[in-house]
Amino acid sequence: MTGSLLGVRRDPGRPPLLDAGPAGDAGAWAERHGDALRDLVDEHGAVLVRGLGLRTVADVGGVAARLGSGCYVEREAFAARTVIADGIYADTPWPARQPMCAHHELSYVLETPATLLFACLHAPDDGGATGLADSARVLDDLPTRLVERFEDQGWMLTRTYGDEIGSSWEQAFGTSDRADVEWYCRANAIEAEWLPGGGLRTHQHRYAVLMHPVTGEKVFFNQVAFLSEWAMDPEVREFLLEMHGPDGLPFSTRFGDGSPIPADVVDLINAAHDRHTVREPWRDGDLLVVDNLRVAHGRDPWSGKREVVVAMTDGVAVPAPEDGR
Predict the structure, then answer these.
(1) Which domains does the chain have, with CATH numbers?
(2) Of 62, 223, 242, nearest to 135 (Cα)?
(3) Contact criterion met (CB below 8 Å) for 315 and 110
(4) What are the DSSP calls for 90-129, one per residue?
(5) What percent of the chain has pLDDT over 90?
């Protein structure tokens, strides 16, 4: 049956689906039903709202202003993406033919967006769904010894900012002043090293498993697989290794003790996410509200024009291991 604010439709392999009713004023709908919708997201982790009739960025901004606690300003972005309005971003640049593996948005920063609002202004001809995976279930599905290692050690992200892939350090940190970058890194438990020629390399040690602040569940919260060197196109990876060596890759992930995370572990993590991923093809006007701490998201390949924008809100503090490595 079609869901209402008293409940959502749950079908195997699909995210919880809420029918908003006849298309009208999306902002007014969010004003009336925002509290109930947030309760549903707390209950299910994510809810796809269908029927809002979102057509413009202004529509999305009106809904986001009523559902969130304030726009989240992105820092340390993996890839430079367009800001189309206050707190609203174009989707991360990514080749249409390549799947994007499941991950949590900005899981490596010390204040992460707790809520993501994806809005579909134009659905693709085929594919392009935003897959969702419950991270508590993923954690339960991973081998116990691997989970224990991640719980004990956390994970390490190393980034080398340059021009080949992703954003420059100026784009990632929102400044061209080195002193501002150094201050930010000290305040956010990031080791920073300036490189010859003006480049920057950073290391940050983060927890890989967190306790969800609302549900109390343990969740697998990180970007170990997404920002792994093994996630790169093999030809691109080989080219970058030849040009810059293993220490010069634009990003790589390791266990918290600095040990490499091999390709088979990355494959294992991705496979666990795949087993627990649900998806629903986008329709024009859809709104997908996601608890970023509890639910990982990815992206399927697609064909045709795809215009999905994202608003990030409800910034929440995420601790770092005390050593700050």
Answers:
(1) 17-126+281-314 (3.60.130.10), 137-270 (3.60.130.10)
(2) 223
(3) no
(4) EPPP--TTS-EEEE-TTTTSSEEEEEEEEEEEE--SEE--
(5) 74
| Contact assessment for residue 156 and residue 255, using Cβ atoms and an 8 Å cutoff | yes
Segment 131-143, tens digit of pLDDT: 999 999 999 999 9
Distances (CA, A) of 83 to 73, 96, 263, 307: 10, 20, 34, 14
**DSSP H helical ranges for 188-233:** none
Token match 């929102």: residue? Answer: 174
Give me the pLDDT at residue 1, please: 35
Distance CA 120, CA 138 (A): 27
Q: What is the pLDDT of residues 34-73, one digit of tens each?
A: 999 999 999 999 999 999 999 999 999 999 999 988 888 8
Taking all residues of the chain, what is their mean pLDDT, rounded to a whole number?
A: 91
10 Å CB burial of residue 318 (0-12, 13-18, 19+) is: buried
